[in-house]
Amino acid sequence: GAVVSQHPSRVICKSGTSVKIECRSLDFQATTMFWYRQFPKKSLMLMATSNEGSKATYEQGVEKDKFLINHASLTLSTLTVTSAHPEDSSFYICSAPSGGNAGELFFGEGSRLTVL
Amino acid sequence: GIQVEQSPPDLILQEGANSTLRCNFSDSVNNLQWFHQNPWGQLINLFYIPSGTKQNGRLSATTVATERYSLLYISSSQTTDSGVYFCAVRTAGNQFYFGTGTSLTVIP
Q: Which of A67, B6, B46, B102 lies at a CB distance of 3.0 to 4.6 Å from B34, suitable for a disulfide?
């Protein structure tokens, strides 16, 4: 299957700082990538759809200025959590469809963010 | 938005037993996938199944898109099958939404 890599896998930061998480499709190109957030013992919640060359599409209730998404190339999308607060602590996972936007979805390893 | 419900939410099995997990969705979808989330959070692709039936070893899945449900069958369960199983659907808007999940525990 296709490979999606996410970095960093774990990050601890102080309240008020910004954290950037990278998502790369290693062996395929993706014009669309998805960012999810998962709380303990809960399902994955779609945060936004990252679109290469254009603005991301955010789900209702997700703060655009808090979670900045940039799809810089066909293999890289980044999520920046700005002015992080303890309530932003969570597991963030990215995904990308292989073989076009209608293709099978593959996931990164996830990034666990802890804001102190 | 679309609702994706899974049942049962929790399941405990004796090793060797069989089980059926269900995924119901409230609207038409263009695709459906099943995933297994391991204890480290990694999502493992199980099936890419917009319709019909597929089998992979002890696992098989069936999607009946017209009736808006999918089933995941696990036969002869093993302790390594433990974890959370999710279905995810792709909508006409090309977004993927996850189901509520089934937490499976297989005891020896």
A: B46
The separation between the first and the last C-alpha atoms of chain B, rounded to the nearest angstrom, is 40
Q: How many CB atoms lie within 10 A of CB A83?
A: 12
Contact A44 B41 (CB under 8 A): no
Q: What is the pLDDT of residues B22-75, one digit of tens each?
A: 999 999 999 999 999 988 899 999 999 999 999 999 999 999 999 999 999 999
3-state percent breakdown (helix, strand, coil) of chain A, nearest 5: 5, 55, 45
The amino acid that residue A73 corresponds to is S
Find, in chain A, the residue whose alpha carbon is nearest to that of B36.
Answer: A107
Q: What are the CA-CA distances from residue A32 to residues A58, A97, B32, B93 (Å)? A: 13, 7, 17, 12
Query: In 10 A of CB B65, how many CB atoms?
Result: 18
| Spatial CA neighbour of A106 closest among A37, A8, A34 | A34
**Which residues in chain A are contacts of B90 at CB distance < 8 A?**
102, 105
Q: Do A109 and B42 touch (CB under 8 A)?
A: yes
